[in-house]
Automatic annotation (TrEMBL):
The keyword Transmembrane helix applies. Keywords: Cell membrane, Cell shape, Membrane, Transmembrane, Transmembrane helix. Belongs to the MreD family. InterPro entries: Cell_shape_determin_MreD_prd, Cell_shape_determining_MreD. This is Rod shape-determining protein MreD. The chain crosses the membrane at residues 5-23, 29-47, 59-83, 95-116, 128-152.
Length: 159
């Protein structure tokens, strides 16, 4: 994917996530489309594009929504680095691969986020968040992630 196409796509995703998707909450849960895109790009394009995607998406989320600059960048960079590292070892045409990686990435994202919030002395009730948000968001991200993955996969392999 061309960098000149990737950057506007991430910005467009950020705008959609911050505006339109606010009206598509299920039980108060909003999908993390930035995480879905980071995982998808990392699977299909590798570590380098995944890291670029994660930096831009994380920076935008930190700038507008986070309590500290760098938290989302760090988490997304970690996810992109790990998934980009196994990019050559996974079956890209199997939809179980992105499903599982998005599930694991969502859980990893929230776990690291709340550990960092704890160290920054922000009160967090992790068990409550795990039961009410993380499980629902994992399902929501995984289902939406399959749709995203299908679109990106077709762009890569069926141009």
């Amino acid at each position: 994917m061309n960098v000149y196409l990737l950057i506007p796509m991430i910005i467009f995703n950020f705008i959609i996530q911050a505006t339109v998707l606010q009206h598509f909450r299920i039980a108060g849960i909003l999908p993390n489309t930035a995480l879905i895109i980071v995982v998808t790009i990392s699977i299909l394009y590798g570590r380098k594009k995944g890291i670029l995607t994660s930096f831009i998406a994380g920076f935008l989320q930190d700038l507008f929504f986070s309590k500290g600059i760098g938290i989302n960048i760090l988490i997304y960079l970690s996810i992109a680095y790990l998934i980009g590292g196994v990019e050559n070892r996974v079956f890209k045409d199997n939809y179980l691969t992105p499903f599982l990686l998005i599930c694991l990435s969502t859980f990893f994202y929230h776990s690291v986020y709340f550990v960092l919030m704890h160290f920054l002395r922000h009160p967090v009730n992790y068990l409550f968040v795990l039961k009410t948000i993380v499980l629902g968001e994992t399902i929501y991200n995984s289902i939406l992630g399959i749709i995203f993955y299908r679109i990106f996969y077709n762009q890569v392999y069926y141009r």
